[in-house]
Amino acid sequence: MSKPTLGIIGGGQLGSMLAVAANKLKVKTVIFCDDIQAPAQRFSNEFIHGHYNDQKKINEFVNKVDVITYEFENIPYETLSEINKVKPVIPKPSVNRIIQHRLAEKDFINKLNIRTTRYASIEKKSEVSSLQDLLPGLLKTTTLGYDGKGQHLINNVEDLDSINVDFSRGYILEKLVKLKKEISIIVTRFSDKKYEIYEPIENLHEDQILKYSSIPADISDKILDQSKMWAIQLAEELKYVGTLCVEFFIDRNENLYVNEIAPRVHNSGHLTINAYNISQFENHIRAVCKLDQIPLKKISNAKMTNIIGDQIIVYRNKKINSNEFFFDYLKKDIKDKRKMGHLTTLTK
Ligand code: AMP
According to the CATH classification, is domain 6-89 in 3.40.50.20? Predict the structure, then answer.
């Protein structure tokens, strides 16, 4: 059977790693991105530069590919849905519609009796005063926030006076979880009850940006089993195809909560490139392009360090040991708080 040509929307580091994995499987890729300097164009067979609402460019892209996936979830639902009428978009756009909106996402998770932190929709500043039991809490934009962007810690109602928030954008107030630990689970679902799941990954954030991910996660068997079960349940309920990441909180009383779902390959799963026989990227390509499902085998424990901002300069000049794997995202500009690369260390 001939392999499909894969279209990837987005050309950052996740797009690069997807294109590298596709190359290995001899799947041709076309990247569509609004950044003319998108790093992923170095690894794809073709690159189309265009804005995500440029219908002519979208048509050009769609005509060149057989199936389409994406590296980030903030593409408008309408755009994905229109594309899906011509060529299959996987994961399907309806998944994206739920997950790109924090309220819809949390409602969906809670309906399945899976725990999240308590939350409320906020449309007006005055609503917060009747929600004292959600304080201290985090006020987050319902859409388009990541790495702590668009988030404010609210300890008491007066804190609202000192922040500049346009409530018409739509906000959610989330009760602050007293965090003991954060973990994530990466699962690739191929079809009904057919999936490959990676072991839980322990994540450490600095300034709300992921800094370190490691396996094995230092967690109880109960948390291990529950997190895997919930991740599989979420993937099944969404009838998801491809790689998905579920981010979890563990509080100081050993309660597990789903923080959020990422309908895509995920930063915490970068260590799967070196620590497993098949990476999260390769599994995503396999599932989306309907290639063989191969049982996962762990090769080693591992720790991944995100290289942020100008730390990349240090790593570019550093001697890399034989158990270390350095990935430079080849971004043209070095920016503060921007993920520039990562280092995976295989550990005992
Ligand atoms: P998010 O963009 O919502 O994933 O948030 C980024 C990071 O902020 C998380 O990984 C946590 O470290 C922290 N955070 C977000 N929401 C909460 C919460 N409700 N309680 C405690 N910490 C949170």
Answer: yes
